[in-house]
Design brief:
Blueprint lengths: L7 E3 L8 H9 L4 E7 L4 H18 L3 E8 L6 H6 L4 E10 L2 E10 L4 E9 L6 H15 L12 E8 L2 E7 L6 E5 L4 E6 L6 E7 L3 E7 L5 E6 L4 E6 L5 E9 L1 E8 L5 E3 L7 E7 L4 E6 L6 E6 L7 E2 L7 E7 L2 E7 L10 E7 L5 E3 L5 E7 L5 E8 L2 E8 L4 E8 L2 E6 L1
Parallel strand pairs: 2-3, 2-4
Antiparallel strand pairs: 1-29, 4-5, 5-6, 7-8, 7-30, 8-9, 10-11, 11-12, 12-13, 14-15, 15-16, 16-17, 18-19, 19-20, 20-21, 22-23, 23-24, 24-25, 26-27, 27-28, 28-29
Length: 417
């Protein structure tokens, strides 16, 4: 994989104190851990796995990882590591047992000269080794009782343009190392997870009209949900998966609707002569934020989930605020910060609170679009577009760091986390 961390940059300000910050303050530093692999057995898979694990531990913000490269065996000299002030050592080995591919993780605590973790993971498909590495990182993180990084093991689902007028839906891990197309043929866009189990997705397929379909990743069953002239896209799903906000354009101009998946009832939420799109739940799903051109340009508004409720502008920065995401009382959005008629424009991601005047810029340069919160709200993922490729960016809000994972020669249209 190409240079897993293409860019690391420090951002200003803190999202807020949490348990991890307290851990760092009390211990003065995060654990220094060396990670390597044993070259015997399935050494190629082991090497790839340890490289991903090194990156995961760095992204977590809870470890100071060091590259131990290759080990001859899975036992160590504690005194040698103590002299180098290393706190932990992790060793990966991949092997076949009764024809089944497995990966073992052994972690030593150097300060107590003891074995702390000895766990084996089954690899059903060699291509899924990144998820094995992510599970290892999660287990190591839990061992030191740091705040959760469970989001690392979640699938990313994204739409990728292939040729003119055609795009596929692809499953990936957050580093874009694992990639598996699940929907091909035609124009397939706007994938959205049906619920937190990540077994099904909604997506839009252009048939005779834009049509929202539901697809089961395991059974491959496809179910038709809605269709509309002009536009049809699911933007946000309720926590229990029983309702979603959807943008439809049955009468040319787009509006936002609330769809009940149990009763199959659809309720119009906005009724505006211009453009309303991309609704996201806020206030315990009693209200939403959305993008509208009510100001004469794309901007962010909020309103209760009632067609007669007034819409309130909540962003007074930028002249083109065109994509959003929400978590609790926080909203992240992209804002155009240049007006270049003949060249590329700069878009940056900002974070605001719906309850206060708080605002924070999350990205620094380039074309940054389509922010998405992690399930725990502690990270924001976004798309960074450059010539010839798209990268997924991850901002770790409490640690003032951002990481990019590039996908060469590819253009991601939309994604969900």
């Amino acid at each position: 994989m190409k240079n897993i961390f293409c860019m690391i940059f420090i951002l200003s300000g803190l999202f807020g104190a949490d348990a991890t910050i307290d851990i760092i303050k009390s211990a003065q530093r995060v654990p220094k851990i060396e990670i390597g692999y044993i070259s015997s057995g399935e050494s190629l898979v082991a090497k790839k796995t340890y490289k991903i694990l090194l990156g995961d531990l760095n992204v977590s913000g809870h470890f100071d990882p060091l590259d131990g490269n290759v080990y001859a065996k899975n036992t160590i000299d504690f005194s040698a590591y103590q002299s180098k002030k290393i706190d932990m050592v992790g060793i990966i080995q991949v092997f076949k047992e009764d024809g089944i591919l497995k990966a073992s993780l052994i972690v030593y605590d150097i300060n107590s000269s003891s074995l702390q973790i000895n766990k084996t993971y089954q690899i059903n498909d060699p291509a899924t080794y990144p998820f094995v590495a992510h599970k290892m990182a999660i287990d190591m993180n839990r061992h030191i009782k740091a705040p959760s990084i469970d989001w690392m093991s979640r699938y990313i689902v994204y739409a990728q343009y292939t040729t003119s007028g055609r795009s596929d839906i692809v499953l990936s891990d957050y580093t874009l190392t694992y990639r598996h197309p699940i929907i091909t043929g035609g124009l397939n866009i706007f994938p959205k997870w049906v619920d937190s189990t990540q077994r099904e997705i909604y997506f839009t397929k252009y048939l005779e009209r834009p049509t929202i379909l539901k697809y089961n990743i395991t059974t491959k069953k496809i179910e038709k949900i809605l269709e509309s002239d002009g536009m049809a896209a699911v933007s946000d799903v309720s926590k229990d998966g029983k309702k979603f906000l959807v943008t439809l354009a049955p009468k040319q101009q787009s509006d936002i609707y609330l769809y009940d998946t149990v009763s199959k009832q659809i309720t119009q939420i906005t009724k505006y002569s211009g453009i309303d799109v991309s609704g996201y739940f806020i206030e315990d799903e009693k209200a939403m934020v959305f993008v509208s051109d009510r100001s004469g340009y794309a901007n962010i508004y909020s309103k209760k989930l009632d067609i007669d409720a007034p819409a309130e502008q909540i962003v007074y920065h930028g002249r083109n605020n065109s994509s959003i995401t929400a978590f609790g009382d926080y909203v992240a959005y992209s804002s155009r910060e240049s007006d270049n008629e003949f060249g590329a424009n700069t878009f940056n991601i900002y974070l605001i609170s719906t309850k206060t005047d708080y605002i924070r810029r999350l990205t620094a340069i380039g074309n940054n679009q389509m922010p998405r919160f992690s399930k725990d709200g502690g990270s924001v993922m976004f798309l960074k577009h450059t010539s010839g490729q798209t990268a997924l960016g991850v901002v770790r809000l409490d640690y003032n760091k951002s990481y990019l994972f590039p996908l060469s020669k590819a253009n991601i249209q939309s994604f969900d986390w």
